Amino acid sequence: MYNSQMRQGEVHQRLRRALRDSVQENYGVAIDDIVQERPPKSSLGDAAFPVAFDLARIAKMAPRKIAETLAPALESVQGVARVDVAGAGYLNVFVDRASYVEDFLAPRKNDAPKTHSKTIVEHTNINPNKAAHIGHLRNAALGDTFVRVLRYRGHDVEVQNYIDDTGVQVADVVVGFLHIEKKTLDEVRAIINEGRFDYVCWDLYARVSGFYAEDRERLKLRENTLKAIEEGTGPEGPLGELIAETIVRYHLTTMERIDVRYDLLPWESDILRLHFWERAYELLKEKKAIRLATKGKNVGCWIMDLGTEGEEPSEQDEKVIVRSNGTVTYVGKDIAYQMWKLGLLDRHFQYEAFHRYPDGHTVWSTTSDGTTASTTSDGTTASTTPSGASDAPSFGDGETVFNVIDVRQAYLQDIVQRGVALLASESARDRSHHFSYEMVALTPATCRELGFSVSAEEAKKPYLEVSGRRGRGVKADDLLGALETKARAEVDKRNPEMTGDEQRDIAKAIARGSLRYFMVKYTKNRVIAFDFDEALSFDGDSGPYLQYAAVRAAKILQKMSTSSVDITFPETLAESFETLGDAEADEIWSVMYEAMELGAMTETVLRTEEPAHLARFALGLAQKFNGFYHRFKIATEPNEAKRALLLLVVQLFHRQHKTALELMGIPVPDRM
RNA sequence: GCGCCUGUAGCUCAGUAGGAUAGAGCGCCGGAUUCCUAAUCCGGAGGUCGCAGGUUCGAAUCCUGCCAGGCGUACCA
After folding, report:
1. Nucleotides on chain B within 7 angstroms of protein Cβ
2. Which tens digits make up the pLDDT trace of A440-486?
3. A154 domain residue, yes or no
4. CATH number of residue A284's parent domain
5. pLDDT number for residue A614
6. Quick one: A29 and A163 in the same domain?
7. Residues 253-312 of A near strand B (Cβ < 7 Å)?
8. A556 in a structural domain
9. Judgement on whether residues A563 and A610 belong to the same structural domain of the protein
10. A300 and A242, same structural domain?
11. Half-sphere exposure of A20 (CA within 13 A, CB side)
12. Which has the least CB within 10 A, A280, A292, A323, A486?
């Protein structure tokens, strides 16, 4: 999929090795991880090593003097042009520009050795009882970006979207249809046929809490419905199934709008029906990880003790795993699911095709019974697949697992991890990562704009939580619609001669880019206080800004009848640099060098589990290119050697920037 | 109460391996378009990095305490 160079120049590796050896030789100190950084200004060099400061302490010598001793070792490294000792003792390295680029463009064999271990990323996980909202978009955008970066770095990734079809949220909508709306299963089918069932459920779900509030006795309805759904009985079971499946298909369609896709949908009901839970339950009891509470507030429940070891167990540290009526909490079911994902549960799902994307990729679904119709993207029914299709890929058994789940569930995730550690091992626990992120909230002002009531107390808060239960939120499709409308107007302003179809397609690309960038540009652990004007901005730090830079570069390449796909290394590159003044050469080089840093940046994203780094990188790169674009006229440059160099900059930028955008799911339109 | 997160320019945020003069976008002021798209670029103003100690050659970054805000601490997820 991605064929551009993934690895940072080998020069960097040689530099670190040479430095490590020289430190060992001169000071007898073994430093395995040589710290490498970027100087604050590109004119100071391409790579900086502050190692002399560490040595100063050990060797009791001035850092500058140490740096001077170490400099020759770096100077003799192949591909290095110059080494400066700067500041109080930095070793600043200038690479040989022409050979660095040549090295970067050289075809590589067997780059990034493929590992056979699989990484499973679980994301989206929307309760299948109402339309997706902006918080779900953040989850999906973060998860999908991480998936793309993992794949770019050569990892084998499986994407799972867990469907909690036996939870309280689905039960509430079932209660809504049966007891508020008084609808039969067939009547609900008729409503589904009218369309936008996810929106219908959004509104209905918001009414259910009021229904319970009027008469607390009605909460019994929820309890009984939950049990019926788990057992698949009564009118509740089939109705819950119908609602969940219909809503899941809406969610897939919504996510496809932002180019987010899945490999497998594991259904919670299958965890129960295929006895995954039963098996985990046995194991938990065997290992004495849970016990039956015989007194206190949790009497009759199977609970896990969370208190620190050695201390007197207290009731506060009891976590209910199995409720007194025998139903299982989310934590219990998730322990079973986690164990399966890690390849540690001796139980297997059956699979069937659930949905096929236009390019043929299939989303599979777990199943425990019967058949389910599979639909293609245009909504037609393609086939019915028998239970346990034999051509299903092999799912599960991940070496590493990432669970993209919001930070409010950190406590629950921790309990799940404890369960895994107790059932398997500490090392099994460490293979599972809670990829946590903060919520998307609404500012009180935005709430009022959207027509939601805001109490006096709420008005004082910096932001208000989105609440599906109260119907307070921005639906994903509404936001995408608003973005498309605005993008369409902007496109029309600039390209009035275009056909409506062309304008629409470009507007969609801009809307998607804008949304996806907005969702990853903030670091994960920051609450996004959603503001419409901010989200709809197409200037500056925004998706369209990044897209615009790519479009500009593409336009130049088009005009010069070339592309960034096959870049040939211009033999005259070294001379081209010499025809320039230092300032010009530095400016041009800094765009090239930055572009070539993409590979290193993706490694940072994986190491830190923070996609925002990629967003920031792409913004900085686009800014550099836009500056370059204004300063140099590329296509009309009369000096041939210089023109070749400028063209190379555009090619390098275009290839790398486009890849960075692809990694975030941001498309690049032909024009905009 | 306890746990986790946050506090950086008027606003929204980067600064995730302890490094050099703390950056970006928006907003504000002033400029740039006979030439590859002005969704752009250039310049300017704007900072007690919440407060106080500590560690270090060096702290927005690490440690301690405090202040402010958010989230969690359910037989919801």
Report:
1. 4-6, 12-17, 19-21, 23-27, 35-37, 39-42, 56-58, 69-77
2. 999 888 898 888 988 888 888 889 999 888 889 999 999 999 999 99
3. yes
4. 3.40.50.620
5. 98
6. no
7. 297-301
8. yes
9. yes
10. yes
11. 13
12. A292
Other Cβ atoms less than 10 A from the Cβ of A240: the count is: 28
Neighbours of A99 (CB within 10 A): 17
Sheet holding A362-367, edge to edge: A381-385, A372-376, A350-356, A362-367, A264-265, A156-160, A118-122, A400-406, A432-437
Give yes or no for residue A36 having a pLDDT over 70: yes
Quote the pLDDT of residue A386: 45
The whole-number pLDDT of residue A59 equals: 83
Is the same domain home to A489 and A563? no
Residues A161, A264, single domain; the answer is yes
Task: Say what the pLDDT of residue A114 is.
Answer: 63
Between CA A44 and CA A37 the distance in angstroms is: 12
Q: Of A60, A95, A130, which residue sits at a domain end?
A: A95
One-letter identity of residue A240: G
pLDDT at residue A38 above 70?
A: yes
**Nearest-nucleotide field for A54 (CA, C1'):** B57
Residues A576 and A598 in one domain: yes
Look at residue A100 and tell me if it is in a domain.
Answer: no
Contacting residues 584-613/A vs strand B (CB within 7 A): 604, 607-608, 610, 612-613
Gap between the Cα atoms of A529 and A29, Å rounded: 49
**A536: Cβ under 7 Å from strand B?**
no
The CATH number covering residue A27 comes to 3.30.1360.70
Within 8 A by CB and 6+ apart from A69, the residues are: A26
Same domain, yes or no: A219 and A283: yes
Question: Does pLDDT of A25 surpass 60?
Answer: yes
How much is the average pLDDT of A85-104?
A: 92
Can you give the CATH number for the domain in which A657 is found?
A: 1.10.730.10
Using C1' positions and the CA of A90, the closest nucleotide is B20
Q: Is the CB of A553 under 7 A from strand B?
A: no
A265-302: per-residue pLDDT in tens?
999 999 999 999 999 999 999 999 999 998 888 999 99
Same domain? For A429 and A308 the reply is yes
DSSP string, A536-577: T--SSSSHHHHHHHHHHHHHHHHHTT--SSSPPPPTTHHHHH
For the CA of A216 and the C1' of B63, the distance in angstroms is 51
The predicted structure's pLDDT at residue A385: 43
User: Of the residues A528, A557, A587, which one is the last residue of a structural domain?
Assistant: A528
Give the domain range for residue A520. Answer: 447-528
Q: pLDDT at residue A109 above 80?
A: no
Rounded CA-CA distance A653/A646 in Å is 11
Whether pLDDT at A111 is above 90: no
**What pLDDT is recorded for position A642?**
92
